[in-house]
Design a protein that fits this description.
Order of helices and strands: HHEEEEEEHEEEE
Number of strands: 10
Distance between the termini: 80 Å
Helix content: 10-25%
Number of helices: 3
Strand content: 35-45%
Structural class: mainly beta
Largest sheet: 5 strands, mixed, barrel
Shape: globular
Length: 174
């Protein structure tokens, strides 16, 4: 049998078909590992995969929602479920997808594992202006001020009107 070399045009076509994505890294398939990466996404849905290690700072089993925080920020996690049993302060690794990015980051949980304990999250000391900026949304924060009023909001949560230097803030106790 005689071996023939295929025509150059056929070899280039084959190369183009098999290497269509060569030289291009598909960022969508790389799971995000930090909250700051999620906050850097556009506000709308992205379906970007996430694999995040963070500490639970808030938990509401009634609406299956938690807030988690890593060293770069906080994010709300939906579809949390009741398994495994966790409490605020627990360190977890979770996988899921981004439902929203930007200043109101939200994840849809797929899986979660409890990690060994870590040092507790220290609340960030903020001003009323910091809170109003949205930069600290879903983070554990601390603010100085005087409680001017305490009421129950439309969701049955305690709402505090706090007079902080130069501004009044409504703090919802979750």
């Amino acid at each position: 049998p005689i071996c023939r070399r295929p025509p150059l045009s056929a070899a280039l076509l084959l190369l183009a078909l098999t290497c269509g994505g060569c030289g291009h890294i598909d960022v969508v398939n790389q799971p995000l590992a930090k909250v700051e990466q999620i906050r850097g996404l556009p506000a709308g849905p992205s379906k970007q995969p996430v694999r995040l290690q963070a500490t639970i700072t808030y938990l509401d089993t009634t609406i299956q929602q938690v807030f988690v925080q890593d060293s770069t920020g906080g994010v709300r996690v939906e579809n949390f479920g009741l398994e495994p049993h966790v409490t605020p302060g627990d360190c977890v690794e979770l996988t899921g997808t981004v439902a929203a990015g930007a200043s109101s980051p939200e994840l849809i949980r797929e899986n979660m594992w409890i990690l060994p304990p870590r040092p507790p999250i220290v609340p960030v000391r903020v001003t009323a202006r910091d809170i109003a900026s949205g930069k600290f949304q879903y983070r554990l924060v601390e603010i100085d001020g005087t409680v001017r009023a305490a009421t129950i909001d439309h969701s049955g949560r305690l709402a505090l009107q706090v007079l902080s230097p130069n501004q009044e803030v409504t703090a919802v106790v979750r």
